[in-house]
Design goal:
Layout: H1 9-15, H2 39-52, E1 62-66, H3 68-79, H4 84-97, E2 122-125, E3 130-134, H5 142-162, H6 164-171, H7 175-201, H8 210-227, H9 231-255, H10 262-269, H11 275-280, H12 292-295, E4 300-302, E5 307-313, H13 317-327, H14 336-339, E6 342-352, E7 358-366, H15 371-378, E8 385-386, E9 401-406, E10 409-415, H16 420-426, E11 429-431, H17 433-438, H18 447-451
Parallel strand pairs: 1-3, 8-9
Antiparallel strand pairs: 2-3, 4-11, 5-6, 6-7, 7-10, 9-10
Helix pairs in contact: 1-7, 2-5, 5-6, 5-7, 7-9, 8-9, 9-10
Length: 457
C-alpha cells in the first residue's frame, strides 16, 4: 500500500527526539541497512520483521522489480475493457462530486489513477500477494527506501496472519468504515516503520515525544489535504497514516506490557468503524457510535425515473470537512465543532438523462444542533443557500446549492443544471441504498474500485 506522507516520517521524528543523546538499544531484532534493489535485502527485511512482530514463520513475498512505465501499463491494462458508457458514468460521477467540493470540475477519466507512480517506491497488493518495487523511484536515499520496505513488509505479515481482503470484506462495507479499517492497517505499518527509523537514528522509542510527533504529523496531513485538488481520492492517502498511526500506537504501548500483544490483536477483531472513531482516539473510540444503521432506511432519495443513479456512499467526516473548506468558505484545517455531532452521512449522485445535468444529494445525520447548518450558509464566500424559506424568488438567479432540513437530518442539494429547488421538489420519498442500487443497472460502475484501488496497492 502506497503512501504520500513519506516525506514527513524521518524529519518529524528527528524533530521530536529527546535532546539527550541516548544509546539506542538494538534489541533482539535489529535492522541492518541495505539496498532494496537487492533481493537479498528484501529477504533480510522479511526476517527482521518476523522477529519484531514475534511471529514463528518468516514470509518471503514474491517481489517484482518494475519501472514506473511498466506499472502504469499494468494499471491501464486492468481498466482498458471499460465501455464508453462506464467511462461516461465514472467521469460524470466525479464531476458531480465537484459540486460538493470533492473533485475538480474538469475531471477526465484516467486523470488520477496512476498519480501514485510518480512518487511511490514500493507497494504491496493483497490481491496478488506481491510486493512491487518501482525501480526508477528508489533514488539515492537508501534509508528512505529501506523504511518504505519495512512498511510494506508489515502489510505482507498482516495479510498472512489476518487476510486483508477478508478483513475489508467484513469491516470495510462503506467508504467511512473502510477508512476506519484502513487507518488501523496503515497505523500498524507506520509505527513499525517509525521504530526502524528511531533505531537508525540511535534512539529508543521512549526517547520520542510521541504526542508532539502525532500532533505535527496530523497537522501536516490536514494541510496537505486542504491543498488537494481531489479530496475524494486523496482521503486514502492522508487520513489513515497520520491518524491511524496514533490510534495504533496507543494500543501498541499498552500491548508492550501484555502477553501475546493482546491490545493490538484485539483491534483487528473489532477495528475502528469510521473516521470519527479513529479521530476520537484509541481510549475513547468505544464512546463513538457509527450511525449508519440508523440512517440506512432513509439514506437515499426517490427521484423520477429519468434520474440515473451513478453512485455514492457514506463519505465520512473527512470529506465533509473538505466540502466545508471548498464550498462554504471554512478556512480551518479541521471543522471540529461543526462536525462533532455528525453520526452518519450518505451522498447520492444522479444524472438527469433528459438534460445531462448532474445532481448531488448529501443527507447528513447531525445530532449536534445547528452548528454545521449555520456554517454552511453563514460564510461570505459560501455557495450554499438556506432553503427553509420555501420556493424563493422565481426571478432570482438559479440556486445551485441548497441546504434544508428533512425529518431531523440535514440535506444538501447541489445541481449544475436545474435549480436545486426544483430537484428538491422532485424528491418523492426516501429509501435504502440497496433499493436504489437495485433499480439502476449502471450504478457506481467501477467507481468503488477507483475510489479504493489503493487497497490493492
Amino acid at each position: 500500500m502506497t503512501r504520500t506522507t513519506a516525506s514527513f516520517t524521518t524529519l518529524g521524528l528527528f524533530g521530536v527526539l529527546a535532546s539527550a543523546c541516548a544509546e539506542g538499544s538494538l534489541g533482539p531484532c535489529p535492522h541492518r541497512l541495505c539496498s532494496i534493489d537487492d533481493p537479498a535485502c528484501v529477504e533480510q527485511i522479511a526476517e527482521t520483521m518476523a522477529c519484531q512482530l514475534e511471529l514463528d514463520e518468516v514470509v518471503q513475498p514474491t517481489v517484482r522489480f518494475l519501472t514506473s512505465d511498466e506499472v502504469v501499463a499494468e494499471i491501464r491494462a486492468d481498466t482498458e475493457d471499460r465501455t464508453p458508457e462506464q467511462i461516461r458514468d465514472i467521469t460524470d460521477y466525479f464531476r458531480a462530486e465537484s459540486l460538493v467540493g470533492l473533485m475538480p470540475t474538469d475531471y477526465e477519466y484516467g486523470d488520477q489513477d496512476t498519480n501514485f507512480v510518480d512518487w511511490a517506491i514500493a507497494y504491496y497488493s493483497p490481491l496478488t500477494k506481491e510486493v512491487t518495487i518501482i525501480t526508477d523511484n528508489i533514488g539515492d536515499d537508501a534509508k528512505r527506501s529501506y523504511l518504505v520496505m519495512v512498511h510494506e513488509m508489515v502489510h505482507v505479515y498482516q495479510d498472512a496472519e489476518r487476510d486483508l481482503t477478508a478483513l475489508t470484506d467484513e469491516h470495510g462495507t462503506t467508504f467511512d468504515r473502510f477508512l476506519g479499517l484502513r487507518a488501523l492497517i496503515e497505523g500498524e505499518a507506520e509505527i513499525y516503520e517509525s521504530l526502524a527509523d528511531i533505531q537508525f537514528l540511535g534512539f529508543d522509542p521512549d526517547d520520542v515525544d510521541w504526542p508532539r510527533y502525532f500532533r505535527d504529523y496530523q497537522a501536516f496531513a490536514l494541510d496537505a489535504a486542504a491543498e488537494s485538488e481531489a479530496p475524494s481520492l486523496d482521503a486514502i492517502a492522508y487520513f489513515p497514516y497520520a491518524f491511524g498511526s496514533e490510534f495504533y500506537y496507543e494500543a501498541w504501548k499498552e500491548a508492550r506490557t501484555q502477553p501475546d500483544r493482546g491490545a493490538t490483536e484485539a483491534l483487528f477483531s473489532a477495528p475502528p468503524d469510521s473516521v470519527r472513531q479513529v479521530m476520537a482516539g484509541y481510549r475513547l473510540a468505544h464512546e463513538v457510535v457509527n450511525g449508519d444503521d440508523r440512517l440506512a432506511p432513509h439514506a437515499a432519495p426517490v427521484l423520477p425515473e429519468r434520474y440515473e443513479y451513478l453512485g455514492g456512499g457514506h463519505q465520512s467526516v473527512w470529506l465533509l470537512n473538505a466540502m466545508l473548506q471548498r464550498t462554504a468558505g471554512h478556512m480551518a484545517p479541521w471543522a471540529s465543532l461543526e462536525l462533532a455531532g455528525v453520526s452518519a452521512d450518505h451522498l447520492s449522485i444522479f444524472r438527469d438523462e433528459e438534460s445531462g445535468a448532474l445532481v448531488a444529494l448529501w443527507r447528513i445525520q447531525d445530532d449536534g444542533g445547528n452548528s454545521l447548518s449555520d456554517t454552511l450558509v453563514s460564510q461570505a464566500s459560501t455557495r450554499w443557500v438556506d432553503g427553509t424559506d420555501g420556493a424563493g424568488d422565481p426571478a432570482a438567479e438559479p440556486t445551485t446549492h441548497l441546504v434544508v432540513q428533512v425529518d431531523g437530518d440535514l440535506l444538501l442539494v447541489a445541481s449544475n443544471g436545474p435549480d436545486a429547488r426544483q430537484v428538491l421538489g422532485q424528491i418523492e420519498g426516501w429509501q435504502t441504498v440497496e433499493t436504489l442500487r437495485a433499480q439502476s443497472e449502471r450504478s457506481a460502475a467501477g467507481i468503488a474500485g477507483m475510489r479504493i484501488f489503493a487497497q490493492g496497492r
